[in-house]
Amino acid sequence: MEFIREYRKGDFGDIVEICKLTAHPSIHPSADILPYIYAVPYVKLEPAHAFVLDAGSSDNASGRRVVGYIIGTPDTNTFVERYKREYLPTLPPAIANTTADTSAAVQADDGDGDELRRMFGRILLNPEDMLHSATSHFIPRYPAHLHIDILPEFQGKGFGGKLMGRFLHRVRARDGDGACGVHLGMRQDNVAAGRFYERWVDGGGSGGGGREDERTKKQEQDGEGREGEGDVGCGASKGDDASDHRGVW
Fold first, then answer.
1. Domain 3-247 superfamily per CATH
2. Which of 34, 50, 151, 192 has the fewest CB atoms within 10 Å, measured from its CB?
3. Sequential DSSP letters for 152-178
4. What's this model's pTM, rounded to 2 decimal places?
5. Residues 89-119: pLDDT tens digits?
6. Gap between the Cα atoms of 102 and 161, Å rounded
7. Do the bridges between strand 144-150 and strand 66-73 make them parallel or antiparallel, or are there none, so unpaired?
8. Where are the domains of the chain?
């Protein structure tokens, strides 16, 4: 029987693979980079705020014990500083070299056509994008952020709400100084995911009431923001150029 539990180091490989498997089909050619943006830094820097959906055994269609997860941080500002100081220097050489080459290609505008890979290279190497500087009130109001992914065969069964509840409870309760709000990103055309997240706006959802009453949405105009955390009901997506960042409580 499936259940929610805290992340363990042995779950690392499954989380990396789920991050790639739940990517939007349009970006599968660049899927190898995605975990280094949307998964690995969180389990390395914020393991206490990571929870997984455990299938109880690997006897299922995916062949995996871990079939979903929620990860994030209660403090985006601090996370960005740690990302630069502690995470970027640890990138595997193959990824670091790829992104370095990608960054150089952007500067040279060599017209190689690999726009997605260049975009993800910029995202990986520029964590300041997480601060949404174009909207100065956004991070102070919603300082936490999250990513959630569940394999398709386990979606639509209520596990997304349970993962959200565990994560929100943890970031609120942190050392008596919990986050006052949390934000996430998603594809604008992911209507079913939008309906799911609406349940958490203004303190809704099974996670209980929040302290922030005003809903805020931030539209990314340049297509290079961090977006596309997997939804829990209709297929996950990452890295699309039509993104919507919203505060959910």
1. Gcn5-related N-acetyltransferase (GNAT) (3.40.630.30)
2. 192
3. GGGTTSSHHHHHHHHHHHHHHHGGG--
4. 0.76
5. 999 888 877 655 544 444 444 444 377 888 8
6. 37
7. antiparallel
8. 3-247
